[in-house]
Specification:
Strands 1-2-3-4-5-6-7 form a seven-stranded mixed sheet. Strand 2, helix 2 and strand 3 form a beta-alpha-beta unit. The protein contains ten helices and seven strands. It is 38% helix and 15% strand. The protein binds adenosine monophosphate, fe (iii) ion (FE) (2 copies) and zinc ion.
Length: 289
């Protein structure tokens, strides 16, 4: 589904759980022939500066964003936020709180793992940079480096699967709080991979209705993890609430098989995001023509 000059609105750098620096990610996006790319690291905007600088050297539009962790009960719900103000005090405070909770949770997971396996917190730290949003992928990388798992995917299916008994959730705001935070920061909220767990686990209509009232802009319809029936339900909800639909790769470098540009977003939707987002300026949007 790669299209020349297409828009890929969901990617991760090593500032969260991708494997490339923000600058390398921009170079990879240019090499993949993308016309627009959004950097959406988990719960942080720390990669924006480097990405902006690199994007400015190429004929590519950069939409700075993030992927905010939220929780509905026990269920993890990811919310993309485009063009938020990175200084917005509400968003800064909440993302700091989430990152701290993630770090403490990762330490507890490693504590539990260390009772049965030869792994310590320093092994995980070695897989991160200062300020990295720590997640299970970094514990996975440590397990791989120690020879306890063969790769990230195997680790997620093995020791880091909830069934194995080591992992636990971390604090996150509700999806409604997430939409409000992103909107208050001038951003454009889009639900990430809402059909990833199948039709029956797509957010209920009343919940989506609440999010729409709070200013939800769109649903990430085209994403490799949305199942066929999940995608059908997401399309129904988009029609029901007149929401925009987006498509993205959720690229994580070598951390996941997802390839840049494997799904893309229609130019008209990209234009709407560029018009609606007021928290920060995109890079190179004038070149978009
Ligand atoms: P966490 O937020 O710490 O619970 O970890 C979940 C993150 O791990 C997601 O954001 C994904 O990017 C990543 N992830 C989930 N499953 C896999 C997998 N099978 N292989 C690699 N990364 C994964
Ligand atoms: Fe991720
Ligand atoms: Fe996600
Ligand atoms: Zn993602």
């Amino acid at each position: 589904m790669r299209s020349a000059g297409g828009a890929d609105l969901h990617t991760h750098s090593a500032v969260s759980d991708g494997t490339e620096s923000p600058a390398d990610l921009i170079r990879a996006a240019v090499a993949a022939g993308l016309g627009t790319v959004a950097l959406t690291d988990h719960d942080t905007t720390a990669g924006w500066g480097e990405a902006r600088e690199e994007a400015g050297r190429h004929d590519i539009v950069l939409i700075p964003g993030l992927e905010l962790s939220t929780l509905l009960g026990f269920r993890s719900v990811h919310m993309l936020g485009y063009l938020v103000d990175p200084q917005n005090s509400g968003l800064v405070a909440e993302t700091e709180r989430i990152r701290t909770a993630r770090r403490e949770r990762a330490q507890r997971i490693v504590d539990r793992l260390s009772r049965d396996h030869d792994i310590q917190w320093s092994d995980v730290v070695a897989q991160t940079m200062p300020g990295t949003t720590v997640g299970r992928p970094h514990i996975a990388d440590a397990l791989v480096a120690l020879g306890l798992e063969s790769d990230r995917s195997a680790a997620f299916a093995g020791l880091l699967h909830p069934r194995a008994g080591y992992v636990e959730p971390h604090y996150a705001p509700t999806p409604l709080q997430g939409v409000r935070l992103i909107r208050a920061a001038g951003g454009v909220p889009v639900l990430a991979h809402p059909g990833a767990s199948g039709r029956d686990r797509v957010l209920p209509e009343d919940v989506v209705g609440e999010l729409v009232e709070a200013g939800l802009f769109g649903l990430e319809l085209y994403h490799r993890e949305n199942t066929p029936d999940g995608r059908e339900r997401v399309a129904e909800l988009a029609r029901r609430f007149d929401l925009a639909v987006t498509g993205s790769s959720d690229y994580h470098g070598t951390g996941k098989p997802n390839r840049l540009g494997e799904h893309t977003t229609a130019p008209a939707v990209v234009e709407q995001i560029l018009e609606l987002g007021t928290g920060t300026a995109p890079v190179g949007a004038a070149l978009a023509g």
